[in-house]
Amino acid sequence: MTVFTKIIKGELPSDKVLENDHFLAFHDINPKAPIHILIIPKEEVKDFQSVSGRLMSEMTLFMQEVAKLMGLDKSGYRLVVNNGKDSGQEVMHLHFHMMGGSKLIWPHLADTDTKNFF
Ligand code: 5GP
Is 92 in the pocket of ligand 1 (CB under 6 A)? Predict the structure, then answer.
């Protein structure tokens, strides 16, 4: 069982932003931006690669609602989803990082030279 399943079940505490029967949004414990929210489905889905289109379409509406609630729909935000080994995904339960609250940087993300890739 992942930490996020424990959060869904209420076995671990979380600072909740929005919840309905299918999704949960809560503040990341180690924020990388002034606002850093994690958005997860309650259904156990291990990563983005295995999520269904049906669930993603509902999750999209939920994420838009979270953005509105936090005022990020006006100021802007970044969504990040880490998928698998190279991305550094730590928790094997699908989650979107929603980050904003100030101007975000767009850093070089690879540990190799990207010049000759394309
Ligand atoms: P990943 O690297 O898998 O994309 O991101 C996992 C995220 O979950 C990290 O940003 C990490 O700070 C966050 N996280 C891990 N454990 C907990 C926890 O128990 N509570 C909360 N709120 N966030 C967590």
Answer: no
Residue 47 near ligand 1, beta carbon < 6 Å: no
| Rounded distance from Cα 30 to ligand 1 centre (Å) | 7
- What would the mean pLDDT of 13-21 be, rounded to a whole number? 98
User: Known catalytic residue: 95?
Assistant: yes
Number of domains in the chain: 1
Q: State which amino acid sits at residue 54.
A: R
Measured in Å, residue 91 CA sits from the centre of ligand 1 at 7
Domain limits for position 93:
3-117
* Dist CA 70 CA 4 (whole Å): 21
Buried b (16+ CB within 10 A) or exposed e, 92-110: ebbbbbbbbbeeeeeeeee
Q: Residue 74: give its domain's CATH number.
A: 3.30.428.10
Q: At residue 116, does pLDDT exceed 90?
A: no
What's the pTM?
0.96
Closest ligand 1 atom to residue 14 Cα is: 22
